[in-house]
Amino acid sequence: MRHCKGQKTEAKTLKIPICAVFFALSMMGCQGLDLAQTPLKSVQLSGIWVVDAGASDDLRAFTRPPSERRRPKLSVREEIRRIGLGSGLAFVVQDFQIIDANQIVIEQGRNSMGVKHIPGTYRDVTWGDRERDIWRIQAGWQETDLVIFSTAKGLRVLERYQLVNRNRLRLDLDVQADGGNRKLTRFFDRKS
Known about the structure:
By secondary structure, the protein is an alpha+beta fold.
């Protein structure tokens, strides 16, 4: 900014909503995620959890084909490339079985947790950074929320496990695939 002699300038304050800052940071690839190895206070996720389908988002809307959802207009070349690569969302749904599990069994340890998805398979998650198959995974704690951020070429999945109370678990997923962003919230109740 240039200042002329004798001319007063006023500093303008740019007001940005906090949610816009969070969104911008998450879109930057979450490279700056500062995840801790332990939560601020004790959090016990171990147990058998059953989905509350009535309180959870509709899975059909989440998995609806891109042609039925609004998404950015792609050039012909980009669209051909996207089709040739297949659906990233289909790949995410296959790899992240928490998306359609009716029940989960969590075994939480000091440095990791295991999750049995029913229906589905078992998944190990270790706190810290690691690579597994095509995924680069960051896992750890933000205060008392367990955060797992997974990236692969053209794909991003941010999972946030939050205890609403001792017997209620909220899972928020933010998925970037097929040139679009999708969000899903699922609630689980502790069976034991």
